[in-house]
Design goal:
alpha+beta; CNF1/YfiH-like putative cysteine hydrolases; six-stranded mixed sheet; four-stranded mixed sheet; 5 helices; 13 strands; about 20% helix; globular
């Protein structure tokens, strides 16, 4: 499968049955601030352009994605049972050709798989989802021993761009004091947060030690990625994962 320019193919030693990728800005039909591969139908983009972008995405997939109604929470659902978007921020499947999917434009997509290629999952991990346990819940939903699970961290707002307040730091440090290492003070009450480090810490806490990716910053790569923090009027990318037959 040949992906459009600048899209992200996970660089991880997953089983050959495991397929997935993360879209970028290139290869679509949208214009203006949404140029060009916007998949966010709730934006003010031309609906016809979004439909065309989704059609182009579908041609690279074995079946239509099982989209979620993302709410920045901890809920994870079985993708096989999603016929229309449900309020959740993670999904999983053990069924071939069922496509787990999330959208993002600064939040971190996390792809998960077991060694045997029998189950896959995906999480939409912004700071609220991370703090409330969406990664832990997605790992648990796989039903595999954590030591047999690997993860790939997709593009997200990087540690030099993600400024947050005291309440965000407290939400993590009150659960895990080691999370303090993921926050760098910039002025009174303001911190730069490292979503990639926080994701790795949460994965490690639930027993996942093989973690790949991380480091691709959406904010600092305007030609490649959408970023809501950089441009409030912008598009949405998608991360997808599924099992081949």
């Amino acid at each position: 499968m040949r992906l459009p320019e600048d899209w992200v193919a996970p660089d991880w030693p997953a089983h050959p049955r495991v397929r997935g990728f993360i879209t970028a800005r290139a290869g679509g039909a949208s214009a203006g601030p949404y140029a060009t591969f916007n998949l966010g139908e709730l934006t003010a983009d031309d609906p016809a352009a979004v439909r065309e972008n989704k059609a182009r995405l579908s041609r690279l997939l074995p079946a239509p994605p099982r989209w979620l109604k993302q709410v920045h929470g901890p809920l994870v659902v079985r993708a096989d049972q999603v016929d229309s978007p449900v309020a959740a921020d993670g999904s999983f499947t053990r069924t071939p050709r069922v496509v787990c999917a999330v959208k993002a434009a600064d939040c971190m997509p996390v792809l998960l798989s077991d060694d045997a290629g029998t189950c896959v999952g995906i999480a939409h991990a912004g700071w609220r989802g991370l703090a409330s346990g969406v990664i832990e819940n997605t790992v648990a939903s796989l039903g595999a021993a954590p030591q047999s699970v690997m993860a790939f961290l997709g593009p997200a707002i990087g540690p030099d761009a993600f400024e947050v307040g005291d309440e965000v730091r407290a939400a993590f440090c009150e659960v895990d004091p080691n999370a303090a290492a993921a926050f760098r003070s910039v002025r009174a009450g303001k911190w730069l947060a490292d979503l990639f480090m926080l994701g790795r810490q949460r994965l490690a806490r639930c027993g996942v030690s093989r973690i790949y990716g991380g480091g691709l910053c959406t904010y600092s790569n305007p030609d490649r990625f959408y970023s809501h923090r950089r441009n409030p009027v912008t598009g949405r990318m998608a991360a997808v994962i599924w099992l081949d037959v």
